[in-house]
Design brief:
The complex is a heterodimer.
Chain A (H helix, E strand, L loop, with lengths): L13 E2 L2 E2 L1 E2 L10 H13 L10 H20 L8 E4 L2 H16 L3 E5 L8 H5 L3 E5 L18 E7 L11 H11 L3 E4 L11 H4 L3 E5 L10 E5 L16 E4 L4 E3 L13 H17 L1 H21 L3 E3 L9 E6 L4 H10 L2 E2 L1 E3 L4 H7 L4 E5 L6 H18 L1
Parallel strand pairs in A: 3-15, 5-6, 5-7, 7-8, 8-9
Antiparallel strand pairs in A: 1-2, 4-10, 9-10, 11-12, 13-14, 14-17, 16-17
Chain B lengths: L3 H10 L4 H14 L21 E8 L2 E8 L2 H14 L4 H6 L4 H4 L14 H20 L1
Antiparallel strand pairs in B: 1-2
Helix pairs in contact in B: 2-3
The chains are: A alpha/beta, B mainly alpha.
């Protein structure tokens, strides 16, 4: 193991007799020792339920939970930790916003893009809104000059980075346009928080959703940034911990963030997000971005060189995922064969059926990268593709 | 209960590395007659598969036969094996058949409901058709 991969014990293994190359990072990332140890040590030493506890362990747990919130708040450039709510993940975060905004969304529309993950489409439909896509060119660049915001547009909900293509959307420009129309903006940062520095103040968004498990932390935990501007939103969930006073006649709620955290949260998960941020910051976000950009560009160049491979999307800035297909070869076959070559990729529609429809395809092979991937991993991916081709001829 | 065709398939796959198994499945797929375009309808398709799968059945001399096709070659190869085992048998026999060769040749992981090739859905559909035909036979 070389580079950052040595920090990730799972990557040491061989699968089917070959050194594992993990290129399914857009689905979930592996965990470094420091995160695994933090979770394990937390349960060994400090674990208890948080808040309201009068005893030592509860105080320790509460402190560590709030420390994690502060770390995330600083990491994404929030004004204060009160703007950061722990959720179950990006999907949960988006669903909570959909529930809270439901009265204004019902019968109206949410502006999205044609590359969205289903989790940034379905919750709006469930809230009674109609998602409408901002137009894009054939390379999947958003045509922001022709963006059409109407009286019915009650929210703009945009992925920062496509989980399929790796295209980076200009979210800052979108929030600038949105401000002229006084429409709030939600950023789905599930595929960007692990790759690009984020600053919600600079971006100017009102909501930002992200998952822990895609940024080297635990599964089942995520965050929702809610701008102070929306501090009095109706909570999406009710229960213990989020209330001020409860009577059978009337209940009043806590101030954010507790207002939005009903029930016992994923305490260890939240703390693991803090540990993951520590890990990334120790390496340095600039260094991570530079390394990932080198590997990503190399992968894209190698794939584009291949005669039998079609790569989807081509935007000014890209990171994370690359989707492609091989001529006359089903993505599922390609994925199965690559798996047996020790290369883990994902195949299918990647929860982005509208995007697949726009390409008139059923699915793609997706290779997605994390900080531990190297150019050697890309070489193994290319070998895998060559092997697939060989088996078909 | 053992079955001569299933045992023959198990022997063919015995000792093969994974990539050779896939090679054999692709070769079997290439030999399988493709279903004509008109029959590849939504009605004939089986959902729950990452690759598309189409199924048709017909009866000849009281015995049940199937056509299966897929847009992915490895899935189609597995279909070719299935057809060797289930075709030209009486409906009741197919309804009760134990497809042990799938586990024996190492494709058992393909059988779990979450697996994207939907082999389980395909087998379920084959057995449903066989059960219905068997019921008709008993009327």
């Amino acid at each position: 193991m070389t580079g950052f991969a040595k920090d990730f014990p799972i990557l040491e293994q061989k699968v089917y007799g070959k050194q594992l190359v993990y290129l399914d990072n857009a689905a979930t990332t592996q965990k470094p020792n420091s995160v695994i140890d933090t979770i394990s040590d937390f349960y060994r030493t400090d674990y208890s339920n948080i808040h309201r506890g009068v005893h030592y362990l509860s105080e320790r747990s509460s402190e560590r939970y709030e420390e994690a919130r502060k770390k995330i708040s600083d990491f994404i450039g929030a004004r204060n930790p009160g703007e950061v709510t722990f959720t179950a993940g990006t999907t949960d975060s988006i669903n909570q916003v959909a529930r809270s905004l439901e009265p204004s969304l019902k019968g109206n529309e949410v502006l999205v893009t044609g590359v969205e993950h289903h989790s940034n489409i379905v919750p709006w439909q469930m809230a009674g809104a109609k998602p409408r896509a901002i137009e894009m060119d054939e390379d999947c660049n958003l045509l922001l000059d022709s963006i059409d915001i109407t009286k019915k547009t009650k929210l703009i909900a945009i992925s920062h980075v496509s989980n399929v293509l790796g295209s980076v959307n200009d979210i800052k420009k979108i929030t600038e346009i949105a401000k002229d129309h006084d429409v709030p903006v939600l950023v789905d940062a599930a595929q960007s928080i692990q790759h690009l520095p984020l600053d919600v103040k600079d971006i100017g968004c009102d909501f930002l959703a992200a998952s822990g498990h895609k940024m080297y932390a635990s599964t089942g935990v995520g965050v929702l940034y809610t701008s102070d501007r929306f501090s009095d939103l109706m909570p999406a969930k009710g229960g213990g911990g989020m209330v001020d006073k409860v009577s059978l006649e009337k209940t009043t709620y806590q101030e954010p963030p507790l207002r939005y955290e009903a029930g016992t949260p994923h305490i260890a998960g939240a703390i693991s997000m803090g540990a993951a941020i520590d890990y990334m910051q120790k390496i340095g976000l600039d260094k991570i971005e530079k390394h990932e950009s080198d590997v990503y560009s190399y992968a894209r160049d190698r794939l584009l060189e291949m005669d039998n491979v079609t790569v989807y999307g081509n935007t000014d800035r890209m990171c994370g995922s690359i989707s492609f297909n091989m001529d006359q070869i089903h993505h599922y076959d390609a994925g199965l064969i690559m798996d047996k070559m020790g290369v883990a990729v994902r195949t299918g529609h990647h929860c982005a059926q509208p995007l697949m429809k726009s390409f008139a395809i059923e699915g793609t092979v997706r290779a997605s990268f994390a900080l531990y991937n190297t150019k050697e991993d890309v070489d193994r991916l290319i070998e895998g593709i060559e092997k697939v081709e060989m088996m078909y001829t | 209960m053992t079955d001569a065709i299933q045992d023959e398939i198990i022997r063919e796959f015995d000792g093969l590395e994974w990539l050779d198994k896939y090679g054999l499945l692709i070769a079997s797929a290439k030999k399988l007659e493709p279903m004509d375009e008109d029959s590849r309808t939504d009605e004939n398709s089986i959902s729950g598969c990452q690759s598309k799968v189409w199924i048709q059945s017909y009866k000849r001399d009281g015995k049940l036969n199937f056509n299966l096709d897929s847009d992915a070659m490895i899935t189609k190869g597995i279909m070719a094996l299935l057809l060797r085992v289930v075709n030209n048998r009486y409906p009741q026999e197919i309804a009760n058949i134990n497809l042990y060769f799938i586990e024996e040749i190492g494709l058992k992981s393909n059988l779990s409901p979450a697996r994207s090739n939907g082999l389980e859905s395909i087998i379920k559909r084959i057995k449903e058709i066989a059960k219905n035909e068997a019921l008709k036979d008993n009327v």
